[in-house]
Amino acid sequence: MALSTLQRSIELAGTLPALLVAADRVAATVIQGVHGRRRVGQGDAFWQFRPYRSGDSLGRVDWRRSARSTRDLFVRETEWEAAASVWLWRDASASMDYASLKGIDTKAERAELLTLALASLLTDAGERVAALGSGARPITGRIAVRRLAEHFADERRVTKTPPSLPPTVPLSTHATVVLVSDWLDPLPGIEAMVRHYVGMGVRGHIVQVLDPAEEDLPFAGHVKFEGLETEGQHTIRRVEAVRGAYGAKLAAQRDGLQRIARPAGWTVHLHRTDKPPQTALLALYLAMADLARVNAA
User: Fold this and answer.
1) Across-strand partners of 206?
2) What is the rounded distance in angstroms from the CA atom of residue 279 to the CA atom of residue 92?
3) Is 252 exposed, middle or buried (0-12, 13-18, 19+ CB in 10 A)?
4) Which residues are CB-neighbours of 185 under 8 A, at least 6 positions away?
5) CB neighbours (10 Å) of residue 172?
6) β-bridge mates for residue 226, sequence order
7) pTM for the complete prediction?
8) Tens digit of pLDDT for each residue in 167-221?
9) Is 124 helix (H, G, I), strand (E, B) or coil?
């Protein structure tokens, strides 16, 4: 799925410039950098040492710190480098491998498409991106998008049971995370994850991707539902009789997401897999630029 999704994501990102022509103020914000950041300079504060990775210049190696290790080289990373980055994550858990209709993406395919297309837009604007929790150094350019796609492919191949919530890792103040999932996990776990990043001053955007059947519950009569993870099976004799209660529960879940995100200044975006991905991508892209402008003011 990775290569075809990568190509689709690049094509999807390419459809947006025409939509952005009229949004000069947003485009200007993005060109300056989604974070309204300062240019890197000699006086940037130290953030952390990290292991040397393939592609790093030897000039970045801190030889004094590396001398204390018997086998590893370490790079000195500045606060600016850590902060001026967008960390992307998409839910790869089994529950995302669902599509109720032929001819539409599974939730996993749509989440990956949106994530890679956003990475393409951001890197075109000079932003640096990386997969959240990958340990990779955020980089810009087309290679960044390809590396992200390769990471997603490797993750699917190696991880038997990918988690349905993002990893909680240390990030610098003013970094940005974009998290794409169906967000149907219990709200306390989601809230704990958001609080982790909010506590570090990280900005965030949550994208909920759902299949149309998960919103509408269009089934009728005697239906057996089978979970894709550990939910087991559940039979409902008259699905139409529970449609109202189901809709109320889904609305409560979405209200909970807003309740968690709003005090932190995070944004929440809702998307169905039977709707054009361009709409969700544009809304997310503009929200990132507007949030940066507000924080930079």
Assistant:
1) 179, 268
2) 22
3) exposed
4) 164, 165
5) 20
6) 233
7) 0.74
8) 999 887 778 999 999 999 999 999 999 999 999 889 999 999 999 999 987 766 6
9) helix
